Recover the amino acids of this structure.
C-alpha cells in the first residue's frame, strides 16, 4: 500500500512540474498565518525541506468557514521561478515561490480519509524589501476534500531558507 501511494505521488508530482512550468530545484520553506481566502477564512502552517535526500515537513490547513481541516506530511518541495512560472497556482516567476506536495488526513470526523494536496506559497520579502504580501494557494487533488481550492494573502510570514552547506543539494 505505501509503495503504491509513493508511486502515485511521484507520478502526480511529475505531472504538476510539467503543468506548472517549474524546474525541480531543492529548497526549504516555512510559513504560518491566517488568510481571507477566495473560499473562506483559513489558517495555514507548513514546513518543507528538500535540501537532502529525504524530503521532510508538515502541512496543516483549516478552513474556518467550510470546515476543511487537514494535517499531513510534505512529500515534495520545489523552488519555482527558476525557469518559468507556477501557472497552476497563478504565481509569477519569482524566486520566492515554492510548490509543496503533501499527503493529508482529514481531521474532520464526519469526513474521514486521506488524500493528496498541492500548495503554492510565495515569500515576497520583509519590510522595505517586500515586493508585496506573502501569498498561498491550495488545491486538494484527492481524498475527502477533493476539488477544494483556496488562495489569498497570508497574514503571517512565509520564509524561504537556503539549503545548509553540506546538504546533498
Amino acid at each position: 500500500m505505501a509503495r503504491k501511494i509513493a508511486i502515485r505521488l511521484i507520478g502526480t508530482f511529475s505531472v504538476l512540474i510539467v503543468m506548472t512550468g517549474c524546474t525541480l530545484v531543492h529548497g526549504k520553506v516555512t510559513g504560518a498565518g491566517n488568510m481571507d481566502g477566495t473560499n473562506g477564512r483559513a489558517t495555514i502552517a507548513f514546513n518543507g525541506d528538500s535540501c537532502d535526500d529525504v524530503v521532510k515537513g508538515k502541512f496543516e490547513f483549516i478552513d474556518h468557514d467550510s470546515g476543511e481541516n487537514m494535517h499531513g506530511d510534505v512529500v515534495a518541495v520545489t523552488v519555482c521561478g527558476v525557469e518559468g512560472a507556477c501557472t497552476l497556482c497563478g504565481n509569477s516567476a519569482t524566486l520566492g515561490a515554492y510548490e509543496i506536495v503533501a499527503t493529508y488526513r482529514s481531521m474532520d470526523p464526519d469526513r474521514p480519509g486521506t488524500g493528496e494536496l498541492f500548495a503554492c506559497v510565495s515569500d515576497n520579502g520583509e519590510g522595505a524589501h517586500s515586493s508585496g504580501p506573502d501569498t498561498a494557494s491550495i488545491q486538494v487533488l484527492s481524498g475527502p476534500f477533493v476539488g477544494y481550492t483556496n488562495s489569498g494573502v497570508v497574514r503571517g510570514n512565509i520564509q524561504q531558507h537556503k539549503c545548509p552547506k553540506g546538504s546533498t543539494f
Observations:
- The two ends are 29 Å apart (CA to CA).
- Strands lie at 28-37, 40-49, 56-63, 69-79, 97-106, 114-122, 135-140, 149-161.
